[in-house]
């Protein structure tokens, strides 16, 4: 599933491109969702101008080896030249901001539908989804994205926390919701899981699909998972006693592995046998003290017979 932000780029493009070097004089200040932000913004550039801007790694703890490859910003329609029949999830993050500056995202969506097969359209602005709900074609699903509970959805002047208790209203407009993963599994200040909430069941009871966001392999995850991102995914799709309908991840291969290979392992009635730990010193059965070496070296393979 290809995730594209409207206009093929983020509203604020300073943290993921070399735009500051390409256009040093184009720095601006705008108010977005009530917050003043300084930097370089997509609405100040034409598509042709952005072709000279190169994508860079936005998270500095990750490798920067691809920064010099020369990947440019893609528009939604550019996907057609790269991927045959792409499955597209289109995200419109700041419709109110665009509208204030004379850009009509509703018309943009209508034009995109004529050229690209869009499967999902999401936005953290319920007013925008309501505005396009009668105009989208085919089986396009509208998904309302929740932000921090204390923040305000400026399109309807309600906090996301208050909207959480009004899923019936959301169902009248959208077919699903996307929530930060902490909406489902809250985390204490010292980074341990609290009991899960009932939001998944409440969404399903309201007839809504529910997706969890904010997954990444290299973020600090709750200690309950023992630094294993696979275990975290499983807690949202099987081990937690409920299942979300999808996840938004910066490392989709890990999510795919968890769902495709491991999700049904623990619940299966098949006897998978005892795990056999193998190292270059032998196996657990032939040399019991290998367990001590294994724990010291943390280098092992686990096979299920």
TrEMBL record:
Range of residues in the leader sequence: 1-22
GO molecular function, one term: glycerophosphodiester phosphodiesterase activity
Documented EC number(s): 3.1.4.46
Catalyzed chemical reaction(s): a sn-glycero-3-phosphodiester + H2O = an alcohol + sn-glycerol 3-phosphate + H(+)
SUPFAM superfamilies (UniProt xref): PLC-like phosphodiesterases
Ribosomal protein is among the record's keywords: no
Gene Ontology biological-process entries: glycerol metabolic process; lipid metabolic process
GP-PDE domain residues: 1-259
UniProt xrefs under PROSITE patterns: GP_PDE
InterPro entries registered for this protein in UniProt: GP_PDE_dom, PLC-like_Pdiesterase_TIM-brl
Keywords: Glycerol metabolism, Hydrolase, Signal
Protein's recorded name: glycerophosphodiester phosphodiesterase
